Amino acid sequence: MEGKELKSLDELIRQNLMGDDLLEFNRIHYGRKDNHELEIKKENIQYGSKNNFEISCYDFPANKEELRKPRIVKVGLIQHSIAIPTDKPIIEQRSAIFEKVKKIIEIAADEGVNVLCLQEAWSMPFAFCTREKQPWCEFAESVIEGPSTLFLKELASTYGMVIISPILERDETHSDTIWNTAVVINEMGKVIGKHRKNHIPRVGDFNESTYYFEGNTGHPVFETTFGRIAVNICYGRHHPLNWLMFGVNGAEIVFNPSATVAGLSEHLWAVEARNAAIANSYFTCAINRVGTESFPNEFTSGDGKPAHKEFGHFYGSSYVTAPDGSRTPGLSRVKDGLLIAQLDLNMCRQIKDKWGFCMTQRLDLYANSLNEAIKHDFVPQRLPKN
User: Fold this and answer.
1) Contact 76, 337 (CB under 8 A)
2) For the ranges 39-43, 178-182, 230-234, 300-304, which has the lowest average pLDDT?
3) Where is the CN hydrolase domain (predicted)?
4) Looking at 111, 117, 120, 293, which residue is catalytic?
5) Is residue 197 annotated as part of the catalytic site, yes or no?
């Protein structure tokens, strides 16, 4: 894989720029000359290397205030590939992923992570490209008693860590309906809520509407010991109003667990979550799975091209953006990884005061206009040439 795909755009830049040129690139691209890298324990770096995942850690300090103490929280983002081929039994596939991810979570805990988020549908291959119901629907599970939740509840309580677990949900209460859902588990191992994906793609091999429809949980923000968090699942990052509503509801950190491939969205990836952080004065954490997944049966993309068994390359590149628009370098495009960011949540208010984007957003104006736009007899506000 590493021979076929570019390992990392950030690494490519670091290898080819130096001195003042690199600092100027950092200022323009990342928003600050110094990426504020934090030291990672040597034994954890060695453990990650042994188990084929990278670790990076960055700091986002806020200005010192007279009346408020710093509100420091460490977030962790995990990107990973599947662990064994997709033609293996369901239980074996899921167990192998659990084993892989547990090693990364243990390192996150040792590095002091308070809130951890996994990628979209983390405990299964992203099989929605196939349009096959079996065996993939068997990965769907209960929010409360499903194997992924039970696995992570124990880790959350053991390490005192909030964990966000994006899964394929089976709603047994409502006719066994399937949803794309993020489960939020607090540091005591209790499920405190869930959010279902608001926007479902119908593009390329992303045949997700074959399995589930748009979510019905609104834009919940979860009050936790470590701040107010929200989850904008994957395709929702293309919708500015989706990001907006999490901010309206008071989010300080919005996680974007995703599964997206190089041929479709990579040129958008570095833009959307970063722009959302700027527009809404909160932190955003963009997580993408990594690797190329191949399935037992061929499928087509509806584009006239030959049938194939691979979805495409999930390019990882997970990153964090602060409310001021500064961001971390991304994780690898080809390798599992843990990205840690130390955030001072005081920056959210400080940037609101500085730039005034939330104060000047004119929700009343847009609410009235959108209320008219959804009517079947809506007439666009257009003026004639003469």
Assistant:
1) no
2) 300-304
3) 73-345
4) 120
5) yes
In Å, how far from its chain's centre is CA 117?
Answer: 7
Whether the pLDDT of residue 3 is over 60: the answer is no
Q: How many Cβ atoms are within 10 Å of 98's Cβ, its own excluded?
A: 16
33 is catalytic: no
With 0-12 / 13-18 / 19 or more C-beta atoms within 10 angstroms meaning exposed / middle / buried, residue 93 is buried
- Assess if residue 32 is contained within a domain: no
CATH code, domain carrying 321: 3.60.110.10
Phi-psi domain of 193 (left: phi exceeds 0; alpha: psi -120 through 50; beta: other): left
Q: Which residue in 57, 117, 129, 234 is the catalytic one?
A: 234
Give the C-alpha distances (Å, rounded to integers) separating 223 from 47, 193, 251, 252, 376.
Answer: 33, 10, 9, 10, 38
Number of domains in the chain: 1
Give the domain extent around 287.
Answer: 40-374
Closest CA to 163 of 135, 191, 144: 191
N-term to C-term CA, the chain:
60
- Residue 25 clears pLDDT 60, i.e. is over it: yes
Which residue among the candidates 100, 153, 194, 197 is catalytic per the annotation? 197
Has residue 15 been placed in a domain? no
Per-residue pLDDT tens over the stretch 325-373: 999 999 999 999 999 999 999 999 999 999 999 999 999 999 999 999 9
Instruction: Tell me, yes or no, whether 109 lies in a domain.
Output: yes
Sole residue written with tokens 């030291």:
39
Instruction: Look up 111 and say whether it is catalytic.
Output: no
* 110 within a domain of the structure (yes/no): yes
Torsion from C-alpha of 148, 153, 154, 158, nearest 10 degrees = 140
